[in-house]
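Quick one: structure for this chain?
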Amino acid sequence: RKRKRSTITMSLITATLIALACLCFAPAVGAAATVSARRPLRGNDTLVSAQGKFELGLFSPAGSSGDRFYLGIWYKNIPGQTIIWVGNRASPLSAVASAELRVSADDGNLELVGPTVASTSPVVVWSSNLSSSLSPGSNNTAEIRDNGNLVLVDGGNSSNVLWQSFDHPTDTLVPEAWIGENKLTGEYQALTSWRNAQDPASGVFSETLDPNGASEVFYMWNRSRVYWRTGVWMGQAFARLP
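Got it. Here's what it folds into:
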């Protein structure tokens, strides 16, 4: 009898441990792997990178009135939401429930749709804004990668990145992202501050590389006046840094 009872007890313990393991490693409810025309990201659902380092979804800035919502990327496992990228900086949503991040069935662009203060009917408030020749169709998919990069890839060739958030930084530079001139498009990217801690709209301070080609970083006010510069890169440090 003792052996039988011991065997039953061990079986129960084993079953319990297996059940707990399944719960621990089960995907989080509301977390998706990719976004497509057929699988939009809705409401409070989020995209999580493969190793769980970064998360993308809708957020309302801490300390704000809570009635404006933005598409953002943040570190998933750092206490306190640390936002590294914002999509619709100038066009916040007024509600989350009917919002969608989706791939357009018409032109293959990644777009955020939802109600705003000016329109209760869903409208496009942000888009990857690629020409139809660069975004060939509705089979395109979007995902958040473990370096924090949101990418839109060609549905017929997953190695062909059509658009990426690293080419359009907001106020934070993470490893592998960049600022300066895109030699292919001629676009010049800079980091631009939030308007204030509760409003991610573009503020008056920015950081970028010297547009004249020197290897130094400019800190600018209103994108027109340099108020501090690092000095040129000396191989191991900038000239004006201690």
